[in-house]
Amino acid sequence: MNSQNVQVKPHTPSIGAWLKKEREETAVLLRCIPATAVSLFVVSVISMNLLANKTIVQTPWLALDGGILISWLSFMCMDIITKRFGPRASNRIAVMAAAINLLTSFVFYIASIIPSSADDYTALNGILGGTWFILLGSTIAFLISAAVNNLLNWTIGQAFQSNPDGKLAFAVRTYLSTLAGQFVDNLIFAVIVFMIFAPVFWDGFHWTMLQCVTCALTGAVAELLMEVVFSPFGYQISKRWKALGIGQEYLDYIGEGK
């Protein structure tokens, strides 16, 4: 047999091997990320879901719900995690937070449908029960916006070769990625809820695409201003993580340790 005619097919890992690797990497990541950061991130995602039931501002061109009060914390946590661990790690934590949020929403829904003799709990049941397509829209929007935010944050950070850990680098990568991520989050949520489902389930009420885009942009700017106020804390946390070598085990595991 002519050895030159033999073709060696590249090895393709099985699904089982891929899942095992994913579990191992996730385990290492969760072992390395400070529990406080993960806890605050998860709590902020759950809180956004609950606060979304409270409308703060409602005009034809601007819509803000109570989620703006806590959304900055979610994006700041993602920015800090991305800065130290990379976008893939931040995406993993975002998926975990979304899954926990869905589980929490299910528990809240069960609690809301349990019969009660007190009329005072009617409003509370409405908040806990929520609306299924709002939860669907917020989950899809959050996951996509998290991926956009994390990738953009990391990409911008790579442009600062001379001083990647400086205040300017942190501010630019954080502000630009947050503005883009929040815009994507608001836009996808508005389109899913107010253009697709609301006309069917809310007696014809709907938004136009122009309203969705305008509200998404103005909302993103408002949410960005919230993060600008608190980003100095994120910068200090990021510096401290690197100084203490937090996450080095994970960075070595994925081959980015220094």
Estimate the mean pLDDT confidence: 86
Please describe the biggest sheet, giving its number of strands, its sense, and whether it closes into a barrel. 2 strands, antiparallel
**What is the string of helix and strand elements?**
HHEEHHHHHHH
> What share of residues is helical?
over 70%
Beta-strand percentage?
A: under 5%
How many angstroms does the end-to-end distance come to? 47 Å
Strand order of the largest sheet: 1-2
Got a strand count? 2
Task: Indicate the structural class.
Answer: mainly alpha
Instruction: Indicate the low-confidence ranges by residue numbers.
Output: none
The radius of gyration computed from the alpha-carbon positions, rounded to a whole number of angstroms, is 21 Å
Molecular shape: globular
Number of helices: 9
3D structure, described in words:
By secondary structure, the chain is mainly alpha-helical. The protein has helices at residues 15-32, 35-51, 68-85, 87-113, 122-129, 132-158, 167-201, 209-244, 248-253, and strands at residues 55-59, 62-65. A two-stranded antiparallel sheet has the order 1-2.
Tag the structure with descriptive keywords:
single chain; 258 residues; mainly alpha; 9 helices; 2 strands; globular
Write the layout of secondary structure elements.
Blueprint: H1 15-32, H2 35-51, E1 55-59, E2 62-65, H3 68-85, H4 87-113, H5 122-129, H6 132-158, H7 167-201, H8 209-244, H9 248-253
Antiparallel strand pairs: 1-2
